[in-house]
Amino acid sequence: MGHSGGHKPGMASTKPHKIRLLTLVVAAFALPAPCLTSLAQSQDLPVGQVIERVVCLKDAGQSYALYLPPDYAPNRQWPIIYAFDPGARGVRPVERFKEAAERYGYIVAGSNNSRNGQGVPLNEIISALFDDTQARFSIDANRVYTTGFSGGARVAGSVAQSLEGRIAGVILCGAGFSAGKAPAKPLSFPVFGVAGSEDFNWIELRQLNRALDSIGSTNRFVTFDGDHTWLPPAFCAMAIEWMELQAMKSGGRRRDDKLIAEWFDKTVEQARADESVTRVYEAFLKYDALAKDFHGLRDTAEFAKRADELRASREVKESLKQERTAEQAQQRRSQEFFGMREQVKTAENRSMAMAGMKNVIADLRKKAEGKEAGVDRLVARRTLGVLYVSMMEEASRHRSAKNHAEAIIDLTLAAEIRPDNPQPFFALARAYALGGDKRQALEALKKAVELGFTNDDEIGGNPDFASIRNEAAYKQLIEDAKRKAQSGPRY
Predict the structure, then answer these.
(1) To 5 degrees, how large is the angle CA 95–CA 101–CA 107?
(2) What pTM does this model have?
(3) How many other β-carbons are positioned within 10 Å of the β-carbon of residue 369?
(4) Between 314-344 and 202-214, two packed helices, what is the crossing angle to 10 degrees?
(5) Which residues contact 14 (CB under 8 A, 6 or more apart)?
(6) What is the distance, to the nearest Å, from the Cα of residue 374 to the centroid of all Cα atoms in its chain?
(7) d(Cα 480, Cα 229) in Å, to the nearest integer?
(8) pLDDT in tens, 3-36
(9) What gap in Å lies between CA 266 and CA 80, rounded to an integer?
(10) Dihedral of alpha carbons 425, 429, 430, 436, sign
């Protein structure tokens, strides 16, 4: 079972691929006091720095990136964040959460095995991760959190839903829950949603935010400047601080009035600063968050009133209208594209049908490259994101089914969408090679190397290139990749 952050548009919103709730062993969360031998083993690991790979004691095939706070000691219990990256790069979230984890005393463990794709044994991966960290470290059973990006966010949410009542909070970045629909009743855990302003899954998280608000389920949604990527360190700190507030409310940790005052004053200052420079919508969001987040901890009546006043303002109404307009436009353009893609499968003249799709992509790219910010540019950038991910994922599924002709169509479109990215060209080269088209395979591989695909081991050792392995041009491309690797990153 794999996990994915991409989707095609559904009836009311974009539709993520489904992922069954994980059937984790509940005993893994009994969290008994670690034995002295295991604690001694944990002391061999350095504190206050990111460790890229910790091998699980009971399964050498499983590992995770790790951060232990500088004052970590086994004589007290510590909160932990389990992180899931769609590419099995556990170090990425650990590095981003490091600064906040250091300040607030969190352990962070990022799986090096959980990833997008078919046939990924998530139950085994997650059980190994939990078992190993709980054997090594002294963990607070009331302060266990999950986070993930894109397909990894779907895993983080699925873990929390499977272990209802045992997860203290979830940080969803770049994707929502795996089932593709909002919960019908309040969740047992708070949800912090975050996405880049140009993330194609921004709509999904915003709709989840509205749905959770409507059923009274504790949640917060924030946006950073960017596209489909892990949240920046500053937003990691925001997420942890928000979870700390929720823990104080629920009794999961002791109340700290100094911290409450610090975070409260900071948010008030930010909201008033936005209002002073007529960033009315941004001020509204912060006042509204103040009223909800600090309710029961501070007197928030003033800010609830101000949020209501701004909600009725012309500026906020116009911003909300533009938000809805962007959602509808992205949905419409995505549906148009996917409808055309279905027609290509049965078209008598495929080249003409493909030309129509390429025209849609060209129009979107022109709008996406516009200098002026606005709804059109935002819609174009988000739409191109969802189209690219969807084409890459569809190609992967066609490849698994050995339907190389359909995979080639999807990858050709993906390359049109991201013409400067070597990944679709490398995948296209594999598909052509598997389909027996040596010339096209070599041309696509050459393009991938020119664009920066410098992993000569992946080129030379990939079994998909069996049909061109003896070609002189293929051998030359391996040498070209080796030379490029000396002056740049390996893809």
Answers:
(1) 90
(2) 0.89
(3) 10
(4) 120
(5) 7, 8, 200, 201, 203, 204, 331, 334, 386
(6) 25
(7) 30
(8) 556 544 332 334 344 445 565 544 444 444 444 3
(9) 25
(10) positive
